[in-house]
Amino acid sequence: MSADHAAVQRTDFDQFMVPNYAPAAFIPVRGEGARVWDQDGRELIDFGGGIAVNCLGHAHPALVKALTEQAQKLWHVSNVFTNEPALRLARKLVEATFAERVFFCNSGAEANEAAFKLARRYAHDVHGAEKFEIISAVNSFHGRTIFTVNVGGQPKYSDGFGPRPEGISHVPYNDLAALEAAISEKTCAVVLEPIQGESGVLPADKAYLEGARRLCDQYGALLIFDEVQTGVGRTGELYAYQYFGVTPDILSSAKGLGGGFPIGAILTTSAIASHFGVGVHGTTYGGNPLGCAVGSAVLDVVNTPQVLAGIKSRHQRFKSELERIGQQYGLFEKVRGAGLLIGAVLAPAWKGRAKDIQQAAEQDGVLVLQAGPDVIRLAPSLVISDAEMTEGLGRFERAAARLAKS
Ligand SMILES: *Cc1c(COP(=O)(O)O)cnc(C)c1O
């Protein structure tokens, strides 16, 4: 047997890999639509969607086609050249959004890193060296590089890595008075997730985002929306800024943009983009033909009135069924979120037990996510079928019933 096909198992993780994750006991090996199969052939319904990444489920024919066709043609040319898939995807993003310019990278953290660097550079060039402060929200998540993890508002992720980058502060989310008190002439950017994803699927109030927009304009700060989780159809609009009707200056996108292939992007105006002149920023793989070909195919499928409307109707079904299950078994206090980013907030009696519920669901054959210890999060395929929803919700209800009895 060649080394490529040697049998591997979950215990190999503990033996060979850095222990920064605690993966499930089973290993998924194949997926189709909203179903995955593990090494033993067990089938599971996937309501987690690779944490809001697999926006068209697994092995969507349009994405498989885009990737394999591009793989026969051209994988990488470096940024010494441009390439057709990058130009096509950039044009599509510009035509579909507020943006006039696009920068490609490979992940959400890289997109935010680029957004923060661009905001600092813009302020430096336009207003001078004193304007560099970034205001972000408590409990926000923006990635794991040193800069992005410190802009993020969760000390458990940023503590213990030596000196922090300067000029970052955090204000309570959805508290406009706190933002107003913190912002100043030294603020170069305010960064917000339109819905806080990792820390509990907590949507912004529309008035909060409108107020943040007004304060940024008043103080000459850029408004950055981290749409790594909320973007690419997740809310039922292409981007959540359209759902809320508040336009940022810079928007970061990743996760769903590649439907499972790594890609990230920032979207911005040409006036701001001009401050990333030749050589100011870059990345070897950003805008590579493979990722951009897949990203284009994702947008072609997602950004249609039918698919976007389908996300909103699926939201209604998930919300009402989860509310019913929540009431019947005393599990949930409320169900919140938008489109197919849904958070079921645990009732007081279940607080802290999201992991137990996730594990029980898995035993009954349905994958759900947690968002902190008190929220069950769903971020399924945006085109999940009625049958897959019925089956997955049925399995979830069986798990809930079993837990409630125990
Ligand atoms: C996942 C996520 C990130 C980080 O993206 P990576 O691709 O893991 O670097 C940043 N911001 C938000 C809102 C996210 O959900």
UniProtKB/TrEMBL annotation:
UniProt keyword Cytoplasm present: yes
Record text on cofactor binding: Binds 1 pyridoxal phosphate per subunit.
EC numbers, comma separated: 2.6.1.11
Enzymatic reactions: N(2)-acetyl-L-ornithine + 2-oxoglutarate = N-acetyl-L-glutamate 5-semialdehyde + L-glutamate
Main location: cytoplasm
Parts of the chain that traverse the membrane: none
Stored CDD domains: OAT_like (cd00610)
GO MF annotation list: identical protein binding; N2-acetyl-L-ornithine:2-oxoglutarate 5-aminotransferase activity; pyridoxal phosphate binding
Family: Belongs to the class-III pyridoxal-phosphate-dependent aminotransferase family. ArgD subfamily.
Subunit structure: Homodimer.
PANTHER family: AMINOTRANSFERASE CLASS III, SUCCINYLORNITHINE TRANSAMINASE
Name of the protein in its database record: Acetylornithine aminotransferase
Taxonomy of the source species: Bacteria, Pseudomonadati, Pseudomonadota, Gammaproteobacteria, Pseudomonadales
Protein encoded by which gene: argD
